UniProtKB/TrEMBL annotation:
Keywords: Cytoplasm, Lyase, Schiff base. Its main location: cytoplasm. GO terms for biological process: 2-deoxyribose 1-phosphate catabolic process; carbohydrate catabolic process; deoxyribonucleotide catabolic process. The keyword Cytoplasm applies. This is Deoxyribose-phosphate aldolase. It comes from Geoalkalibacter subterraneus. One of its GO terms (cellular component) is cytoplasm. Its EC number is 4.1.2.4. Belongs to the DeoC/FbaB aldolase family. DeoC type 1 subfamily. The keyword Lyase applies. Catalyzes a reversible aldol reaction between acetaldehyde and D-glyceraldehyde 3-phosphate to generate 2-deoxy-D-ribose 5-phosphate.
Amino acid sequence: MNPACHIDHTLLKPDATHDQIRTLCEQAAEYQFAAVCIPPVYVALAAEQLYGSGVEIATVVGFPLGYCDPRTKVFETRVALERGATEIDMVIPLGAARENDFSRVGDEVAAVVEAAPNVPVKVILETALFAPQIVKCLAETVLEAGAAMLKTSTGFGPGGATLEMVRLLAQVADGHAGVKAAGGIRDWPTCSQYLRAGATRIGTSNALQIMAQWQSGTHR
Ligand SMILES: O=C[C@H](O)COP(=O)(O)O
């Protein structure tokens, strides 16, 4: 099984340039990755370049800290859709999660989902910040609010995806929503382990390296 269809080819570095995004899009079309995951400012460029390629255009909202005004997240979502985004990766309000204020978390997700009625909203829980029991409550909350996918991490927080968290999110999603493992995934063995644990997407800045490792293994 070619893993490319599970991979979000990601470039979210703060100093990402137009040229780097063009190259990322070329690679995504060539490998047929599931999506590119890019900064909001490059959505129109990527949408134009990837038109008709089958590659989704994912961008981020409230990224990476999650603490902007909820109305800002809604506005970011609307603008991203106008520009051609076909998937939204949003960060939950992490302070609200720390306070166990699950209703605030759910309300923000519901507001973004409402602003993006025909587009999957992938909700980033930044799982490294929280104990498993809290992650479980957060995952249940955001699913109820309409999340299409549970995503572990931004890649900019205190830790990335772990096997334990991927398993936990897959258990909560129970086949009714996707699970995106992201943050610190650099090699094919890790990627493969997460897919087997129930991840349906892998968000990574190292997709080409992962594909090379997969190819060298399968064609040995
Ligand atoms: O949203 C996806 C992450 O930013 C990817 O994290 P990474 O740069 O550690 O691969």
